[in-house]
Amino acid sequence: MSATGCGCGEGRTLGLCLIVRDESETIERCLLSVLAVVDEVLVIDTGSRDDTADKARRLGANVVRVRWSGSFASARNAALDRLGSDWVLMLDADEVLAAEDRDRVRELLSGCVEGYFLPVLSFLGGGEHDFTLDYRLSLFRLRHDYRFGQRLHEDISSAIVASRPDAALPIAPVRLLHYGYTDAVYRKKHKARRNRRLLLREIRETGRQGRLLYFLGIEELRGGRLRTGLDLLCESRSSMEPSAPQYRDVVRELAMAAIELGRLDLAASALEEGAARWPRYTDILFLQGVLAVARRNLEDAVCRFDDCLSLGEAPMGFASMAGVGSYRAYAAKATVLMMQEHLSEAYISYLKALALAPEWAALVSQIAALLAAMPPEEAARRVEQIRSLVGANVRRFAPSLWRSGRRDLAIRAEVPEQAPVAFLQLAQEIVSEGLVLAGEGQSNGRSSASRLNDQRRDGRI
Q1: How far apart are CA 452 and CA 429, in angstroms?
Q2: What's the pLDDT score for residue 304?
Q3: pLDDT score for 7
Q4: I need a surface site. Which of 301, 379, 381, 433 has the fewest CB within 10 A?
């Protein structure tokens, strides 16, 4: 095949490659998600001290121990040297292949392309609807001149394009689900400290490149060093060409950090540039709405969030916060309407968000706050409306309603709709007596609780 050939008709075997170290908690989940679609599994272990390697071997992986050199690119290239398949699927141990997309993987291998960017959904800990969306070249042909570069956030697309300028690298509808950026996991794995160390080392070796400054700025933000992170993003923006792959992300992250730090003029400048360069980038419009709220321009904020809903989610290939063109925009609009004391309109907007993202944890507390601000009868009707929309999941609202002081609504959310009136009355008695218990140290709350349990045992409720 020529150096610029399309690859049609070549082999279609697929090898999975993982770079791991102490990934015992996630390695099995990752491997089980892809074993049915790959022909070869290679795990490069850079120094695990747990049973990661044993678990991988039990699932049929070829585990090779490689000394850690301080470079993810070197580790991945070591994997490429050992694979024998025609195609490579590169995953991290804290990722899984979406089950609904597995059947599409083998079909991709017959395409006249050199590789595919895959959407990566990085979950943030607030449920299945709380994630960021990015794209990574994770599926590509194995060729001797395709090599990874950069110590961290390593990249192979540059090598592919350099070797074959006309190489096709489309986006494929095969999702990777990434769980490594939830706060608890990120802290436990000490990723921020490791990433910061690798980035500083590469900056010393190669200079203050805009790309490296961007990634370092993100790590500073994740570590809570907001001012340092914002300064690095500003330096990155000024030193990076607007055509660079990360420039769009720099503008977005810079605006978010500037709003959080109260640097509203700086945020406005970045967002104005973003809106001019990428008018259909929904995240920019969404942040303009957030900025309008920070400036107390509430009418403008509502208009911005409406614009997000009209535009829809960010274009394919754009890094984005999930829901900025749908449920997240509805929720943001509802929050502003609450600030304007338009409670009925806010409720409708929240309900639209809930219909689209019933598992989004942040939405529960926001809607509970709105219900707590409503008159009792209206709030009770709204709880039943929510029950008709989400069914038994309405019980998720009970703790937030309880904490807000609306115990009547908390009980209504907790009690099944078909339960008899006696159940609700007994629950109210328990609450009342429980409050006396908490306040006076008495023990007269047991009688109602016992009666309630009796009714449950007798099958009356």
Answers
A1: 10
A2: 98
A3: 61
A4: 381
Contact 333, 305 (CB under 8 A): yes
**Span 419-434, pLDDT tens digits:** 444 444 544 454 454 4
Residue 224 C-alpha from the chain's centroid: 18
CB within 8 Å of 434: residues ≥ 6 apart: 445
Q: pLDDT of 324-375, one tens digit each?
A: 999 999 999 999 999 999 999 999 999 999 999 988 988 988 999 999 888 9
Q: What is the pLDDT of residue 5?
A: 46
* Two structure tokens written together for 10: 């070549």
SS3 content of the chain, % helix, strand, coil (to 5): 55, 10, 35
Gap between the Cα atoms of 104 and 362, Å rounded = 33
Give the Cα separation of 442 and 427 in Å (integer).
18
Q: Which two tokens stand for residue 221?
A: 């933000």
C-alpha atoms less than 13 angstroms from C-alpha of 213 in its C-beta half-sphere: 20
| Two structure tokens written together for 396 | 């998720």
The radius of gyration computed from the CA coordinates of the chain, to the nearest angstrom, equals 26
Tokens of 133: 């969306």
The model carries a pTM of 0.85
Q: Kindly give, in sequence order, each residue whose CB lies less than 8 Å from that of residue 182, ignoring residues fewer than 6 positions away.
A: 123, 124, 125
Report residue 58 as tokens. 């039990």
> Residue 405: which region, alpha, beta or left (left: phi > 0; alpha: psi -120 to 50)?
left
Distance from C-alpha of 344 to C-alpha of 349, rounded to nearest angstrom: 9
DSSP 8-state class, residue 455: H
Q: What is the pLDDT of residue 417?
A: 55
Residues of the chain with pLDDT under 70: 1-9, 183-189, 416-461
